[in-house]
Amino acid sequence: MSNYLSRLLDDAVNELTRLPGIGRRTALRLALHLLRQDELQSEALGNAIINLRKGVKYCSRCNNISDDELCGICSDHRRDVSLVCVVEDIRDVMAIENTGQYRGLYHVLGGVISPMDGIGPADLNITSLERRIETEGISELIMALPATTEGDTTNFYLFKRFQEKVATFSAIARGVAIGDELEFADEITLGKSILNRVPYHKSF
Amino acid sequence: MSNYLSRLLDDAVNELTRLPGIGRRTALRLALHLLRQDELQSEALGNAIINLRKGVKYCSRCNNISDDELCGICSDHRRDVSLVCVVEDIRDVMAIENTGQYRGLYHVLGGVISPMDGIGPADLNITSLERRIETEGISELIMALPATTEGDTTNFYLFKRFQEKVATFSAIARGVAIGDELEFADEITLGKSILNRVPYHKSF
Q1: A46 → closest Cβ in B30, B50, B94
Q2: CA gap B78, B104 in Å, rounded
Q3: ipTM attached to this prediction
Q4: Nearest CA of chain B to the CA of A157: how many Å?
Q5: What's the CATH code, domain B76-172?
Q6: Of all residues in chain A, what percent carry a pLDDT higher than 90?
Q7: CATH class, B7-55 region
Q8: Reduced to 3 states, what is the DSSP secondary structure of residue B115?
Q9: DSSP tag of A60
Q10: Which of B7, B13, B6, B49 is nearest to B31 (CA)?
Q11: Which of A1, A7, A8 is best to mutate for the B interface (most B CBs within 10 A)?
């Protein structure tokens, strides 16, 4: 006899447990919840999960997630094609899009250089970035990679490789978050925010 | 353009968000995780969810979850058919089975009487319990319902209705949990555990 008295329940619990952050107890709670709901809900959830992985495409230009050949951002003619923001993954695209402050395009690297994890430049979408730099007339490359050793390594690698080909290289500002007290900011962030202080005429 | 740049991702996030305890941020994290895994994993998860709700059966005797007409407990001939433990739902069956201390059968009510939620005796699996009491030679009915007003109401209702038909009516012991300090036990539990104290010859 199975743990959960039903092979179907066992299967569902086992598969749910493979998701990150979901233990057996939570998986069981989710499965029992689905059993109490209409059959249509389980079907919609199951099919959405299957279709996501099966049907998803990646933008041929920027590697962002997309339902078509080009993503919604790359195919939006109102965006400024001379600006390209380099990010680690599509979550970063979403985060920047949610600010509503950026009107350029993106390039999703799909990771950062990490010798510890065996990830080198060849494992990232850098060749396609080079092709874009050579053909799309990009004037500024904005680095929005994580502020980690790996992120810094990747920044440096891209700078060395493309500095001659792009007029402006920049990185998003790091500093004390808006609303945060100075005394609670870590020293590195606070130090950066003093070094990179902004003259009044720039920000107003 | 959708929030998440892809209708497929949107659909998956929306469906995952309908699960209890899963917000949009977690749903997105789960969906992006699935995108990084092999397609087979999404298919296994999706199919397990669909098949669970579609294929699940309930035991015709005790209403426990089952893959067959009779559940694994009811069809196990080594179990003591004269003992029936009445529980609210199948999670309680699992919890008691996990103790390894009970060798009788169960009866899953599917809820408790709750006038506030509009749940009366007719909404619970009580008619099937009555039929079992009349035909199966049950000698003891063990109430293992929650220690709430609704649980107590249901206990009382079942006692009034079946007291003449069953030799012994009992309820699981409530008291200070093993390992708990007396000073931290709530007064009602501690009071119960004094009232229902167990003479040495019973427990040893």
Answers
A1: B50
A2: 9
A3: 0.79
A4: 25
A5: 3.40.1360.10
A6: 68
A7: mainly alpha
A8: helix
A9: T
A10: B13
A11: A8
Burial A55-75 (b: 16+ CB within 10 A, else e): ebebbebbbbbbbeeebbbbe
Are A62 and A79 within 8 A, CB to CB? no
> How crowded is residue B28: how many other Cβ atoms within 10 Å of its Cβ?
20
Picking from B2, B68, B145, the residue whose alpha carbon sits closest to that of residue A7 is: B68
Please give the order of strands across the beta sheet that includes B168-171: B104-108, B80-87, B140-143, B168-171
Dihedral in degrees, nearest 10, Cα atoms A69, A75, A79, A85 = 0
Q: C-alpha A44: how far from its chain's center?
A: 26
Q: What CATH number has the domain spanning A78-172?
A: 3.40.1360.10
Q: A21's torsion region: left (phi>0), alpha (psi -120 to 50) or beta?
A: left
pLDDT band for position B2 (cuts 50, 70, 90): very low
Q: How far is CA A11 from the centre of its chain?
A: 31
Q: Which of residues 59-118 of A touch B (CB under 8 A)?
A: 64-67, 71-73, 76, 89-91, 93-94, 97
Digit-coded pLDDT (tens) for A125-139: 999 999 999 999 999
8-state DSSP, B114:
B
B156, B134 contact by CB (below 8 A): no
Q: Which of B96, B101, B122 is nearest to B110 (CA)?
A: B122
The span from the CA of A140 to the CA of B20, in Å, is 44
Tell me whether residue A176 is exposed, middle or buried, using C-beta atoms within 10 angstroms of its C-beta: 0 to 12, 13 to 18, 19 or more: middle
Strand partners, A108: A87
8 Å CB contact between B76 and A1: yes
Q: Kindly indicate the confidence band of residue B60, based on its pLDDT and cuts at 50, 70 and 90.
A: very high
Domain spans in chain A, listed from the N-terminal domain onward: 7-55, 78-172
Q: How many CB atoms lie within 10 A of CB B2?
A: 13
Which position has the token pair 């510890």?
Answer: A116
Q: Which of B84, B135, B66 is nearest to A6 (CA)?
A: B66
Token digits for A23? Answer: 């233990």
